[in-house]
Design goal:
With about 450 residues, this protein is an all-alpha fold. It has 15 helices and 4 strands.
Amino acid sequence: MTPEDTAFYADQVTLNSLVQNLLYASGTVGAILVVVGLLLIDAGTARRKNLFNSTIEKSLGFFIGFATYYFIGFGLWASQYYIIEGATMMDSIKDWWIGGGLTNSLAQNVDPAIFPGLNTFQIFVFFLAVFAGIINILLHFAVSERMKASAFYVTCVVAAVVSSLLSYATWGSVGPLTNAGFHDFFGVGFVYMFPAGMALVFTLRLKARPGMMAPHERVSAYLATSIGLAAPGLLLIFAGLPMVILSCLFFFDPQALAVSVTMADTSVGVALNNYALVWAGGAIGGLILAYASGNYAYTLLGPLAGYVAGASGFDVYMPWQAFIIGLVAPLAAYLVYEFTLKRGIDEHKLFPLFLGAGTFGMLALGIFKAGTPRGGYLGIEEGAYAFQHGEISLLMQLAGIATCVGAGVVTALVLSLIFENTIGMSVTEDDQIDGLDSKLWGLEPDVITHADNTPRI
């Protein structure tokens, strides 16, 4: 086909559209910074003998989820907007899988009457694919050093597909749960609560790592490589997420009216200040808990707990409310952390942050912002998808929590049964003690710690 035979639609490539393209592209950059921050936290908290393997499994798991999302994930999420136009989920998948017509079309060659703003949607595939990968990184924090790589990589594919279905139902403005009143601005449900639900099953089946919860005959203590690395990782996450917030907004005429992805009234400035203040509140709350308990973990969990608790409502809170949510959230993380610690459960990240602070934030949103209008789509004035026809409610927040955590539990239960009857799931205790870096890659740590120097009995 010659250039003369190719239609050109200037409305698809205007300066205004370029500004939105750059905005959503910056959100993708922010999400990648979050990935780097998470890997830094892992590098600081993994056992020295498993450091490389832990980091590389997270990295490869990220790209497996990322690639899976390109094959089917975005088509599942975007189908909510197809359905309101009378099309089907399969129509969306056909358009948006890796070989789909819209995935592989140049924006200027597609009639805006068929699909306006194509460049922005194509960039959004990249943006959401990063989060499909992040879900696998988060899950790996719960199974690191004790789940076979083969089982983990299969899980990464399945998790990307299931989380994409969850995003269709719970994140956007016209998905089934969202349209009915469930409110989740930042995707706390499908990005954070879903892998935490999976961890509920995997953690109990894999059991605690040697030396983690109690001294072992060959490992006197579980010693992290360098806890100090976790703080820069924390700040890198803090630096990347503001750009992600911008990508959770839709912009409409006149000029650049900001409406949240849930179609709630909001503004760029208020959303960003809410983000800033939940971190500040969480840092202060965590600081108080850390010094009161003598446990350094709360200095790191505090800011993250504040963020996770506030993330579902960045669009609808006022800054003073966000600060209070952030300040209280570390207490929810504290209660879950202490509960699991006393029972010897080897999971200290996903449970306190996502099941503790995340659930607290969802419930607080359902209580204090009940009745806030949202849902539907701007421009639709009547019917099941009318703009802001739905309202936030506690009942729907509970339904959303149960759906996201429950989906994780069911997914992990099914996978566990399959793995345990086929390829196996658990790394042997001896291999955990000797270190997977040596076992799989022939790598030895440069320093042998006193905890690892106990002779074999």
